[in-house]
Amino acid sequence: MPPTDVCDRARQTKDARFDGLFFTGVRSTRIFCRPVCPAPAPKAQNIVYFPSAAAAAAAGFRPCLRCRPELAPGTRPADHRLGMALGLIGEGWLQESSVEALAARVALSPRHLRRLFIERLGATPLQVHQTQRFLLAKQLLSESTLPVTQVALAAGFSSVRRFNDAFKASCGAAPTAVRRRTASQPAGELILRLAYRPPLDFPATLARLRTWAIPGVERVTRECYERTVGDSSATGWIRITSRPDKPELRLHAFNVEPADVPALVRRARRMFDLDADLRSVHAMLQLDLGLARSIRRYPGLRLAGAWDGFEAAVGEMLHGTESDEARVRAAMGLIVQRWGSHRVVAPPGLERCFPSPACLAQARLEEHTGMAPAIANVIRCLAQVVDDGALNFRAGQVLEDFVARFVALTGAAAGCAQAVALRAMGDPDAFPVESCAPAALPDDWRSASPRWRPWRAYGLALLAQELRSGAGGRGLDQRQGALLRGG
Asked: How far is the C-alpha of 97 from the C-alpha of 99, rounded, in Å?
C-alpha cells in the first residue's frame, strides 16, 4: 500500500492511477471505498486505509454502493511468491483445495504464507478468496439480469442458501436488495465493466492482437476484440471494447454459462494486462534513460496476451520457424479449417473453435498444411503433453521452472517458452527477445535487461514498439543505445 500521505493526496484528487492499490474505510459509516469514489469526502479523523478489499471486509466494512469496490483493478505484487498465490486464488484454487495445498504449491509453509498475506494485503488467503467471490457476485447483481441462483453459481457457491447468508453477512443486505435496475439487454448477452489504472493504449494492444488473430476463431478491428469461447458444443462468444470516457473496458459475453463468467473475466483482464500498475513499472524502468524516452512516447503500452495458452503455444512454435507473422496466421488458419470444430450459430468470421490438444496430437499436419515434418512433430508433441496434463498454462508458475519444463517436454527453444510464458500467463518478467525483436536488438541492449527485473517484459515491449514504429525514422538510435549501456 502507498504511504499514508500519498493515499491522502490520491483520495483527495480522486487519482485513478491509485485505484485498487488501496481502499478507504470510513469509520462513521463502516463503508469502504475506492480512491475515485464520487461521494463527498469524509472527515479526516474518520478515515482508515486498507491495502486490499479483503482487509476492509475482514475489518467489518461494507463495500460502497456508489464507487463499487468490486470494479477496482487487481494488483500484481513484485513479491513473486505472493503473486503466484494470488494468481492461483484468482483461478479458483481454494474452491477445491486447502490453504495448506496452496502453500505447498508456492513452496512456502502455511504459516509463512498466512503471514505474507497479512503483512502485504491485510487479510488471510481464505479471506482474499471469499472477498473475491463476494465482489464478483455483487458485480453480477449490479450489472446483469442473471437470476440470483445463477449469480451464486457463477461466484462459486453450490448452495443458494449459503450464498444468501454469506452475502448478507458481507454486505449487510440480501442479494436482491443491492440489485440495480439494469437496461434491457438482448437475450443471452452479459455486459461487465473491467476497470484499469490509466494510462492504457487500447489501440496499441489491439494492433498487437491483430497480428496474432487466428482466422475463424478471433477477429480484431480498430475498435474491439472478438472470439469464440467454449468447446465445439457451445455457441458462446465475446467482444471486448473500450470506454473513452472512463478507464474501463467492456466485456460483452454472448450465450455463455454463468459458471464460466469468472474465467472469462480473468482471461480478459490478463489478455489486456488490466491489473498492471504502470506507475511502479515505469519507476524502475526509467532508471535506464533510454527506456525513459520510450516511456514518454508510449506511456500506456501494456503486455498484450493470448486468450488461450495452448493456442499461443502452437502459434509460437510456428513463429520459431517462420518470421513472417502473416504466414504464421495463415498456417494457424489452415489448422483451424482442417481440425477446428464448426460453430452452427456464430457471427461471421467467428465460425470455428481452435482444435483441442487431443485432436492435434493425432493430426497429420504435414499432409494437410504443407508444414515441415520437424515442426509438425514438435506441435504434436506439445499437444500430447498438454493433453496428458504434463504441461499447463495456469497462473502461479515460476518462470524458470516453466521454461525448463516446456523445453524438456517439447524440444522447443527457450525463447519460444519465454514467449508462451508472456502471452499465455502474463508473466511480467518473461524475456522472449527472439519473438519480440529478432536480430534487431543488439547484444548490449540485452545485457541491460537484468536491471529491469521483475519487469523485463515491459522493457522489451517498449523497445519492440520503438522498432515497429521506427520512432519517426530514428528507431533505437545510437544515443539511446549508449544511454541504456551506461544505465
From this structure: 7
Q: Please check whether residue 225 is in contact with residue 218, taking contact to mean a CB–CB distance below 8 angstroms.
A: yes
Q: Which of 103-107, 143-147, 187-191 has the lowest mean pLDDT?
A: 187-191
For residue 181, give the C-alpha cell: 435496475
Residue 484, pLDDT > 50, answer no
Write the burial class of residue 183 (CB in 10 Å: 0-12 exposed, 13-18 middle, 19+ buried).
Answer: exposed
Please, which contacts does 276-283 make with residues 24 or more away whose CB atoms are closer than 8 Å? 276/76, 276/196, 276/197, 276/302, 276/303, 276/428, 277/21, 277/75, 277/76, 277/197, 278/197, 278/199, 278/302, 279/17, 279/197, 280/78, 281/428, 281/455, 281/458
For 109, counting Cβ atoms within 10 Å of its Cβ (0-12 exposed, 13-18 middle, 19+ buried), the class is exposed
The CATH code of domain 80-178 reads 1.10.10.60
Fold observed for domain 270-487: Endonuclease III; domain 1 (1.10.340)
Residue 104 reports pLDDT greater than 60? yes
Domain ranges of the chain: 4-66, 80-178, 189-269, 270-487
Specify whether domain 189-269 bears CATH 3.40.50.970: no
The DSSP line for 430-485 is: ---HHHHSTTTS-HHHHTTGGGGTT-HHHHHHHHHHHHHHGGGGT-S-HHHHHHHH
Q: What is the pLDDT of residue 436?
A: 57
Whole-prediction pTM: 0.88
- Taking each continuous run of H as one helix and of E as one strand, the counts in the chain are 25, 9
Question: Is pLDDT of 232 > 80?
Answer: no
- The CATH number given to 4-66 is 3.40.10.10
Residues 6 or more apart whose CB falls under 8 angstroms from that of 334 comprise: 368, 369
Cβ neighbours, 10 Å, residue 331: 22
Distances (CA, A) of 368 to 36, 94, 247, 338, 372: 55, 43, 45, 8, 11
